[in-house]
Each structure stands twice: as structure tokens, then as C-alpha cells.
């Protein structure tokens, strides 16, 4: 392969946190020009794993996919960029690539500038020859053997057949090798593989050999247990099923009607017994025990209505449980489904429909003393939420002194202009992949990006153009087209004043900066309208951290600041024929109304909202408080909502459409997360979403969690090292939202490297392991999003500039998140009617 040379220098004015690398002079070593058919590969070292291709000059319609791995020198990362061109291209030595690096390029940067390697159309590669021995059992002969190569936290699965030798073309480099267990379709026969060697180096234009051999086959039985369509009152219940195999093994699960549960790797012989039971409102329903003989095969078992018997249980020691109901006066007609589920006994439930009117009632049947989880989820009808607030656990005392308080509230309408009528998931675009491949794979319903040049309002002057807005609108339209017309809304993040970095007093008084940022918001609104072909041009989230900072500094509504003059000058500059209303004053509340009026005046077709933070109450550390469950979250949410009401953000004729709520844009198991006090376990995420729900109910405004990290928790089988934590961007946000059975309810399922992370002091936990132990019991097997609409949420926007979303250029979770959202979109949760 002819050698390509180039020249790379550090761009102007690098800082401690950001700089650019500028590459030009691309040619072959003999001086001849380089021609590619479609792809140019660039490999180099960087002080950060967060790298983007900022520009290519002259402009070309390219897409760039970037991956990273820890470099050989500590603190460096090996970057591989695959730049795809629309067709053949011959480079001039003047062609220039500018790479944005979120790291320190000051001083001697020769380690980075001298590391560039460039390849035309293919990376250096070799042949990996995998010889797989014969399967140890005929039942495994048609099974696929998966071999996984891992390098720098990235995994590359390969598939081969037993009894065959298969060759693969593999990029040169060092890999760790693992072979998955060989199994047949029903997991009734398995074999443990042994792979040799377990570490390989694939060299360019050479062959590397691997062998896979097997130990003796292991035999099992399997059961598929189907709960059919049962008769009332069991037709809407989860039936508890218990399977016993001899005296040593018991498996239990809860199943709704019309569902099959698969049990695998049971003993290959012996007897299995199956029992089904549920105690509902003091009536015990149960089946006669079924027995099956296990025989190293798949056996199917059915549970139907005619198999159930019932009997009333003794209630002589039970007590009444009063429920004090407080309902909004305007609520009439419908009822709330209320349930108590025992934590002391298996499948022991009380259920009642509660009318939506204030007063004191009882459960309707005596309650056995003990501990119960409380469920009263509310409902959505014609898009409007009716929500409840009630403790999530109660201990019913044997002396009859216990009682419950249930608040029923009319919440917001969840049908927001421009967004679909189902719970959607959107994500950040870094505008690198302008074909939207990752966004299309994830079936996102919105795409967000910071507007302008600096992404913070560009207070230094009026922009003449805003490519970020135009490209985002075009990208959303393309993704929508790729998805057959599925709605995909572009969402721009716009600042008219940026209080995110401090010195807010000065910024609020900077009339010139306010004027320019007003003008640049107008430009973004105009460009979105011009580019869009939809009824709703775009969504806009305005002024992140503005409300939080002002709340933190206790600035009141009458705080004096320039508003009318900067707005008037911006309107004149952009040639907007409108007069600032006399109701807009030179105050903090006047400024809020000015932004609302401006958006409704310039782009009445757009949809928009403001944003609040967890830390507006002074700090976000309250979420780690161990003394309560949801009380603290409710109190802090009410404080936040009260401040929003104080400024009149959602008052008047120009009120916004929604509210965005931000946790903090960082993956929990990166230093930006845990080092800054953002390291959540299941309990902290539950409190966060309690906060979100309360804000929505207090403001009666639909809410959108925004910049939520979609990263996941790695399990013990995954390739995790201390060095790979930063580039892999592991975290908890995605696992909490989408669920992961590989983690489930066991702390021991989490990779030990992650468990050993020591978060910042304000987390009040020595390690991630102790953080998760403080959340026990938890179960991350299932998605948390099922009740998001019942918490006032209509959409969730994932990811950030260097935080995991759905794009594969950040961390190792992007593909997983794509698959989770895509699966969800097969049957999304309606915002019209629930349940």
C-alpha cells in the first residue's frame, strides 16, 4: 500500500479545554496526488476521545464516523476517522481538514501532530483464520459460534460454524479474544468453548490463526409456560407462577394474561411442578399443581381459567385502612385505579377504583397488617393527564392507626405542537453524520442542536448566517424521510443570554450582548421557518440555566435590567416590523415576557419552552439525601415551580408550549459525571423523575427531560478497564430508562471496575458499589419509561456534546440505545389515552 504523507499543525488560540488540529498537504510520498473511490481513513493520537471533524475546505458533502481507543501513551487516545465521500475524489495538497479536540493542545503538541496516518479506501488489514472444531453433540452442529474481538473498549463479533475454518478480514491491531458458549435454539444442549490464543496481534497483509475447541456437551430441559386469557377478576392481573424442580431449584415469575415465559437450563431429567396463585382482595385464587417429566427437550405448559379454584381467607385480625382523598374540584366522572401490593407475602394484593372526589374512604375490605407498596398511577384521557401523589410504601399497623393521603390533580395536556401523539425519544446531533444514519437507526422523533456559532447566543455580534439551524432542520427532514414520514422535529437550543458559565450579574446588564443575542434568536427562528416544509417549523429550548441561576441568586421579578432598548434595536436590525408591547418592562420578568413575545411574533408556527435545573434551589446534592424517599424531590420541585411562577414564565398570551428539565450533561461513570457529583444509582434517578413529575403538575405544563445521558451500566462479562472508562462513557441513565436484564436487581452483576469508582464527596458514598447498595431493593430489568406520560412527560431528549445519546461517535452505548428506542417504536406509548 503506497504511503500517504500529510502536514498537521495546531490551530490558532488553543485553550486548556479545546483546540484544533489542521491537516493539509495530503499526497503520496512520491508527490503524486491521492485519489479515493469513496473513503479516506485518518488515524492519529489525541489528548481526548472527544474529537469532531469541524470543517473540510473546500467544502465537500461528506460524512465522518469517528471511533477511539486508549493510546499507547498514558492520557492519549487513538482516533480513527472514516470520511465518506459521495464518489471518487482526487485531493489537492491545499485541501484542509480541521479537527476539533476537546483537550489541551497547548505547548509541545508534536506527539499529536506527528501521529497522523492516512489511508485511501481501506485501513491496513490482515486475515484472521478461525478454525472451529466439530461440535461435541449433533444438536449443536447447526449452531453459530460467536467469537468477539475487543480493542479499546470496542467489540467486533464474528460468526463461524463448528467443524469449519473461516477467514475474516480484520483491521490490523491488538485484540483480546473471547468465544461465546455454543448453544442450540432451546438451550437444551450447550458446550463451553476454549479459544487460543486469547490475545492476538493482526498484522497488515499477514494471516493470524485462532482455534476454538469444546469441552463435553451439557444437557438441559426447557419449559415454555403460557398463561392464557383468564376470566375476571384475573383477566387484568399478574399471576404468580412457581416452578419447582426436585428439592434444590425453584424458579418464580409473574405473568400477565396471554404471555409465554421461557425457562431454560433446567435439569435434563426429573420432575418439575408448576403452581399458579394470586390473593386478591382477601380471596385466594390457585391452580391444582401440574407435574411434568423433564427429558432434555422443550416442554410446553398451559395455565387456563378452568384450572383455577378460589377460597376466602381468614380476615379476623385484619384492619380498615382509611384513605384521605383530596381531588381538584374540576375532576369528575372517572376513577383512579388503586392497589396495595404486599412486600411480606407473595402475590398478595388489594385493588380498588377510587372516585375522584375529596373525602375519606376505606380500601373496601379489611387489610392484613404488614408492609405494602402503593400504586395509584393516574391516567391520560384525550391527551390530558390526571395524576396522583401518594407515598410509594406504607406499613399497615395491627392497631388500625395507619392511614393514607391520596392527592388527585388535573395535570397538563401532553399533546405538544410539533411532537408526535406518543411518548417520543429525541437525541443530539453533532452534525457530523449529515445522512442521519444513527438517528434513523434509533427512529428518533426529534433532533436537537445548539444554534449559532458559539452555541451560546453569540453575544459579540450579529450573525450573518446560522448553519447549525439550517443543517439541523435539513437533517430532521432527511431522517423523517428515511423513516417513511415519521415525524422528526428539529429542536434548536438558543440563548438570548448565557448564564451557564457564571458572572451572571454582568451578563444581565450587558445591553449590547443582549441586543445581539436577541437578533441571533430572530435569525434562527427565520432560518428554521425558511428551511422547514412542516406546519411546525422547529422546536426551541431557550436560555438553559437562566431560570436556575436567577433562582440560585434569589433575583426577584422586579430586578432591573435592560430589555426594551436591546429588543427594539434587534428588531430594527433584522427588519422586523413590530413594536415592543408596553407590558414588557426593564425587569427580569419583563425580560422573560420579551423572549416569549419575540418568539410568538417572529415565528408563531414554532413550538418552544424554557428550561429548569435541579440546582436552582441552591445545589443538586439534595438528590443524595438518604433520609426520605420522595418528599425531598417534591419539596425541591415545588420551590423550582414557585420561582417559575414568580417570573410569570408560563403566564399570558405568549406562554411557551413546554418545559425542559436538565439533570447535568455528563455520563455518570466518566470523571465529568462522578467527579462533579453526578453519579446516580436507581434511587437517585427515581427521585429525579419524582422531581420532574411534581414540576409538571405544579405548573400544569408538559415537560421534557433534556440532555439525559443514555449511557448504560456494563455487566461483569464486558471488557471494561480503568483506562477505558473515559472513552467508553459508561453510566446509568440509559439503563434506568430502557432497562437491562443483564444488570437486573443484583449489584454483583455490575462490572467490578465500575463498582470501584469513587465519586465526589457530595455523593455521600465511598464507591459506586455502596451507592447501588443504598438503592437495594431495585430492579433495572425493565424500562422505566412506561409511566413517563403519567409523570407529565411527552418526550425525552438524550445525549449532549460529549455525552452518550444515540450517535456512535460518543462512547460505546450508542448502538445499544438505537436498538432500545427502535424496539420501543414498534409500539410506542400513546399520549391520547392511558390506560
Q: How would a textbook summarize the main sheet?
A: 10 strands, mixed
Low-pLDDT windows of residues: none
Number of helices: 16
Helix coverage percent:
10-25%
SS elements, strand count: 48
Strand content: 25-35%
Radius of gyration, taken over Cα atoms and rounded to an integer in Å:
30 Å
Taking the alpha carbons of the first and last residues, their distance comes to: 62 Å
Based on CA inertia axes, which overall geometry fits?
Answer: flat
Please tell me the overall pLDDT: 94
Report the structural category.
alpha+beta
Question: Can you give me a brief rundown of this structure?
Answer:
With 835 residues, this protein is of the alpha+beta class. It has 16 helices and 48 strands.
Please explain how this structure is put together.
- It is built from 16 helices and 48 strands.
- The model has no long low-confidence stretch (mean pLDDT 94).
- The protein is flat.
- Strands 23, 24, 26, 27, 28, 30, 32, 33, 35 and 38 form a ten-stranded mixed sheet that branches.
- With 835 residues, it is of the alpha+beta class.
- Helix 3 packs parallel to helix 5, helix 5 packs parallel to helix 8 and helix 9 (631-646) runs parallel beside helix 11.
